[in-house]
Design brief:
The complex is a heterodimer of chains A (492) and B (228).
Chain A lengths: L20 H4 L20 H16 L2 H19 L8 H4 L7 H18 L4 H20 L8 H23 L6 H9 L6 H15 L1 H10 L18 H20 L2 H8 L14 H17 L3 H18 L3 H11 L7 H11 L21 H16 L1 H12 L2 E3 H8 L3 H15 E3 L5 E3 L3 E6 L2 E6 L5 H25 L1
Helix pairs in contact in A: 2-3, 5-6, 7-11, 9-11, 11-12, 11-13, 12-13, 13-14, 14-15, 15-16, 16-17, 19-20
Chain B lengths: L4 H4 L7 H7 L7 H14 L4 H13 L6 H13 L5 H7 L3 H4 L2 H14 L3 H10 L1 H4 L5 H16 E5 H8 L3 H15 L2 E3 L4 E3 L20 H11 L1
Antiparallel strand pairs in B: 1-3, 2-3
Classes of the chains: A mainly alpha (492), B mainly alpha (228).
Chain lengths: 492, 228
């Protein structure tokens, strides 16, 4: 690989940062700095070398190395040296990387992310982080960056961008604990983490990268994007394209946070989540995509789509066994078919829903109340009213399962309601279980369906499970493959 | 040579739909979207995406919110039933605003329609004609929705129920039924006492029953080599 002989990186070091002697035993010899030590102004040697190597790898486009350093070394150093403190300020490390503008922006991005993760960001830091993102995105959009960065990092950028936006909205809405000084500053900085700005950046990334055209052309086979996981093997850059792609998911997320589920799903439409795509390459992205897709469908009453996507991601999580906490969360959502009363719905929804935000700045002249809960409360209220509307339906369903025909009078007496109420409930059942697709066709997602002939209800159990046969066949085949493989390895 | 198109209205080069598609997060298009709502009301057209875009922009800048426009959007959304447009719009309207009387009324009306309580709906609608008359075509749209729900549920239903659902009686009801019989394949039985709805996929679920546990031959063929 290209190596600039004029640079002296010290003799005898391998190209891989993590293979260096002091790191092989996992930084055990590193002394954590004393608490209270001002970490921002002192650059320990390991940090200096980290920065130098990272800069070099970025310049030489060694994506694998970058990924190792970004995922591994950065975390290790944070844990050992900067557990509760900040990394050295960018001005301190800039001399080691030739004051490279783009690298400094990237370093600051990681710097702020560390602050958000380990410490409580101050208002000033929030504003600075916003400025940094603006600068970084400006450079990527209008400059000609010729880098290849790992998809994990690019996803984290988009993810963190939205997370900090969310965090700022929550922070801004908690008016009660603010000092007068903070309020004064907030009044001034209208455009910092402004929702329109955030949305426009995401939109700009999508447009400038022309990712929509790329995804379209890919279907015709003219362009390879997904096949190479977004990376460019011809010496080009993947940054803008992949950022554009992840911004599609970002838009879905922001729309859901604002309560606009329809537009969120519309934004996601270029990506077919049933096909393997670049969003599969980063697990965080995959989970986020499926979660928000499923949640949006849930709020739109498209329960079949929602359940399908949640199932998909639950299976995946279960197989990878990394995120046990969150898998139980989805499990609970899927159990809503059973006889649960309203309080349970309230609890489940509150536990599982995204952190909704109020995007507009508050009116600072009104009495200071905390209104960060407003957006969430509204969504909860609407969800619960939907639940209430569907309350009779589960008991109807259980009765209908028992019969092939039953008269309206009889069913009404079973359910202890009068006939008109029952008729109304039957109509509601039909209405709620029939969904209008985007192209206007009506689709039923009920597993127990019926029709009414004057006074008699005729029931048809539509979804008979014929799945067992397929299931067994698939597994027999798989097992056979495994056995054959074992046979082969024994022979060798 | 006709008039030059550029000279007439240089700002109207893009239609509203295009504006929303290209530049949905730009607060400057807010006035255009508002006038488009008025246009939808006047010409009995409807565009969910544009209205959602407007509600979003109101969310970002609550100071510019125009309550009358929002009410019109909500009424239009009600007319779009059985689509879930009304709920979608409600998600974007702040809770404080939803506590106002007109909004409470609209929410109640929506609730009645979602739970198919047509009689209560029409009673409430009659009490609030002033809100609903602003948007022409409201009554027909709701009647269309009622007919839709009835068609997917019933094969035959008593005439009285039908009358209650679409809020039409006497001679006008006869006319409606006649229209449906002639154009949509309806029929009347028992001297007009029972309305027979055309069979469609939804009120005839028997047709969709899957046969139990039949496995196609190809699948079985796949495992034959293993079994042998």
């Amino acid at each position: 690989m290209a190596y600039d002989g004029n640079r002296d990186f010290g003799g005898g070091y391998d190209d891989s940062y993590d293979d260096r002697p002091e790191f092989r035993d996992g930084f055990r010899d590193l002394q954590p700095l004393e608490p209270g030590f001002d970490t921002t102004n002192y650059v320990p040697d390991v940090v200096r070398t980290f920065v130098v190597y990272l800069y070099r790898h970025i310049r030489e486009k060694n994506v694998y190395e970058i990924h190792q350093m970004y995922e591994g070394s950065f975390q290790k150093l944070s844990d050992r040296l900067f557990k509760q403190s900040k990394w050295p300020a960018v001005e301190m490390i800039a001399p080691y990387v030739e004051n490279d503008h783009v690298f400094c922006l990237l370093y600051k991005e990681m710097w702020f992310r560390h602050v958000y993760a380990r410490l409580q960001p101050t208002l000033e830091q929030r504003c600075d982080s916003w400025d940094n993102y603006c600068n970084l995105f400006q450079v990527i959009l209008h400059g000609n960056v010729n880098m290849q960065l790992p998809n994990q990092w690019l996803w984290d950028m988009v993810d963190e961008f939205i997370y900090q936006f969310q965090s700022f909205c929550q922070y801004r809405a908690k008016l009660k604990q603010k000092t007068d000084q903070e309020l004064a500053v907030l009044r001034e900085i209208d455009e910092v983490w402004n929702v329109v700005g955030v949305l426009n950046y995401l939109q700009a990334l999508i447009e400038k990268s022309m990712i929509l055209q790329i995804l379209e052309e890919e279907k015709d086979g003219n362009v390879t994007f997904t096949a190479t996981d977004g990376y460019d093997y011809h010496g080009g850059t993947n940054v803008l394209k992949v950022l554009g792609y992840f911004s599609i998911v970002g838009l879905l997320r922001v729309h859901c946070l604002l309560g606009d589920y329809h537009s969120g799903l519309r934004a996601l439409s270029p990506i077919d989540i049933n096909q393997p795509g670049v969003f599969n390459t980063v697990i965080g992205c995959q989970i986020t995509t499926i979660y928000y897709y499923g949640f949006a469908n849930l709020m739109l009453r498209r329960y079949v789509d929602s359940i399908k996507s949640f199932n998909q991601i639950l299976l995946y999580i279960f197989k990878t066994k990394q995120y046990h906490q969150r898998s139980s969360q989805y499990d609970q959502i899927l159990k809503k078919n059973e006889q649960i009363d309203e309080a349970m719905f309230d609890e489940l929804f509150s536990y599982a829903c995204p952190k909704f935000i109020t995007p507009s700045p508050p009116n600072y002249d009104e009495p200071l109340i905390n209104f960060n809960q407003d957006a969430y409360r509204l969504q909860l209220k609407l969800f619960l009213s939907e639940v209430r509307q569907q309350q009779l339906l589960s008991s109807i369903r259980s009765f209908l399962k028992l019969y092939t025909t039953i008269s309206i009078a009889k069913l009404a007496s079973f359910m202890d309601v009068d006939e008109p109420t029952l008729r109304v409930a039957l109509l509601t059942y039909k209405h709620k279980t029939h969904v209008i697709n985007y192209d206007g066709t009506v689709l039923s997602n009920a597993d127990v369906d019926f029709y009414v002939d004057d006074d008699m209800i005729h029931i048809a159990d539509t979804k008979v499970t014929k799945r067992f046969g397929d299931y067994f066949i698939r597994h027999i085949q798989k097992f056979d493959e495994i056995v054959n493989e074992l046979d082969r390895t024994q022979l060798e | 040579m006709g008039p030059m198109p550029g000279a007439q209205a240089p700002q109207q080069i893009f239609t509203i739909e295009q504006l929303v598609a290209l530049n949905p997060y730009n607060p400057d298009i807010l006035p255009d979207l508002e006038s488009y709502v008025e246009e939808q009301v006047a010409t009995q057209t409807y565009s969910l995406d544009c209205n959602l875009c407007l509600l979003r922009l109101y969310q970002f800048q609550p100071a510019r919110m125009n309550v009358h426009i929002i009410i019109k959007i909500l009424v239009k959304a009600l007319m779009a039933l059985p689509a879930t447009d009304f709920s979608l719009c409600m998600f974007l309207i702040p809770e404080r605003l939803q506590m106002e009387e007109t909004f409470l009324t609209l929410a109640t009306l929506a609730h009645f329609l979602e739970t198919s309580r047509f009689r209560e709906f029409w009673d409430e609608a009659n009490r609030n004609r002033d809100i609903l008359e602003v948007v022409p075509g409201f009554e027909q749209a709701i009647q269309g929705y009622a007919i839709h729900v009835l068609s997917i549920t019933y094969q035959r239903l008593p005439r009285t129920l039908f009358a209650e659902a679409i809020n039409v009686e006497g001679l006008s009801l006869d006319k409606v039924l006649e229209h449906q019989v002639n154009n949509n394949g309806w029929a009347l039985e028992k001297g007009g006492k029972v309305v027979v709805l055309p069979l469609n996929e939804d009120n005839q679920p028997v047709l969709r029953r899957n046969t139990a546990d039949s496995i196609p031959l190809e699948h079985v063929a796949k495992i034959l080599p293993v079994l042998v």
